[in-house]
Write a structure and sequence with these properties.
- It is a single chain.
- The chain is elongated.
- 27% of the residues are buried.
- Helix content is 55%, strand content 0%.
- The two termini are 14 Å apart.
- The longest helix is centred in the middle third of the chain and has 15 residues, at 75-89.
- By secondary structure, it is mainly alpha-helical.
- It folds into two domains: 2-13 and 135-184, Orthogonal Bundle (Endonuclease Iii, domain 2); 21-127, Hypothetical protein, domain 2 (Endonuclease III, domain 1).
Length: 188
């Protein structure tokens, strides 16, 4: 890791602090499994439905499905967004209270929403809440980064990743930021 840090330089880990937690999660759902350009187009079309701004949970929950489908959402993503919006609008999902919860409770709370998996919850912890000790073992970029930096022949298992990352505590999120860049730098 020391070599990688020296090659990459200063850490550029940044929080995504704009907007509300709801906005961040709706964006994450829209962007799942799409190219950045396609997702950005759909995301901007959704905002256009609300005068160029992100919708509130109540607005999104009450927007007719056909209108959101015309913005480019698949049926599946529409169902995910509606579930998130309904939970938040009804007060069953207290998004602004997530800041005070421990990491595992945030993951448990968010993964109760359809379409929000562990990886999405971990990215929320890292980049929205600024939690510095998250290790997303299911992230392919982190797996490839560890394989590259540690000279492994295969992608590491979650257990291997946990062992390798143990010395990085309590800054595993920062280490992950470097690992995502590992394949962009040449190693001697």
């Amino acid at each position: 890791m020391g070599k990688l840090i020296a090659q990459v330089g200063a850490c550029g880990f940044q929080l995504r602090s704009d907007g509300a937690h709801f906005d961040h999660l709706t964006r994450a759902i829209v962007y799942q499994q799409l190219s950045g350009q396609a997702a950005a187009t759909i995301h901007s079309r959704i905002h256009a439905l609300y005068g160029g701004r992100p919708p509130t949970p109540a607005e999104l929950a009450s927007t007719p499905a056909a209108r959101l489908r015309r913005a480019g959402l698949s049926r599946q993503k529409l169902a995910y967004l509606k579930d998130l919006a309904r939970r938040a609008a009804a007060g069953r999902l207290l998004l602004e209270a997530l800041d005070a919860l421990p990491d595992e409770s945030v993951i448990e709370t968010l993964t109760a929403v359809r379409g929000v998996g562990v990886w999405t919850a971990q990215m929320f912890l890292m980049f929205r809440l600024g939690r510095l000790d998250i290790l997303p073992v299911l992230d392919l970029g982190i797996q490839k980064g560890i394989r590259h930096v540690y000279g492994l022949r295969r992608l590491p298992s979650p257990a291997q990743m946990e062992r390798i990352a143990a010395p990085w505590r309590p800054y595993r999120s920062v280490a992950c930021w470097y690992l995502w860049r590992a394949l962009d730098v040449k190693t001697p």
